[in-house]
Amino acid sequence: MVKHIILWKLKEEYNNDTVKQGIKDGLQSLKGKIPGLIEIKVQTESLSSSTADVMLYSVFENEQALKGYSVHPEHVAVANGKVRPFTQNRSCIDFVE
To answer: To 5 degrees, how large is the angle CA 29–CA 32–CA 34?
Structure first.
């Protein structure tokens, strides 16, 4: 299995519950729509010690499924409509477990 974890820092003017919920709902709506996507969870509540605003935790069957997810039209639509316009930076780690 391949784990795909993303951390985003929101643009200051968009750092609010409405934007966070939109990101969460959009990404979590992908479950069952992307071949090889086993699990997807978005965390928007964090402790004050955190340096990121939103976290994506997802699990894929294999690396090929992760590559397919990155270009899948449903994912691209969510990324372009719900995530990218509101984020100032992104950190990612992908690994096999």
So the answer is: 90
- Rounded Cα gap, residues 83 and 67, in angstroms: 19
The burial class, CB within 10 Å (0-12 / 13-18 / 19+), for 92 is: exposed
What is the pLDDT confidence band of residue 14, given thresholds at 50, 70 and 90?
Answer: very high
Report d(CA 31, CA 47) in Å as an integer.
Answer: 27
Q: 């990218």: which residue's tokens?
A: 84
Which residue type sits at 96? V
pTM (2 d.p.): 0.94
The residues facing 42 across adjacent strands are 56
Domains of the chain in sequence order:
2-96 (3.30.70.100)
What whole-number distance in Å separates Cα of residue 10 and Cα of residue 52? 8
The residue type found at 38 is: I
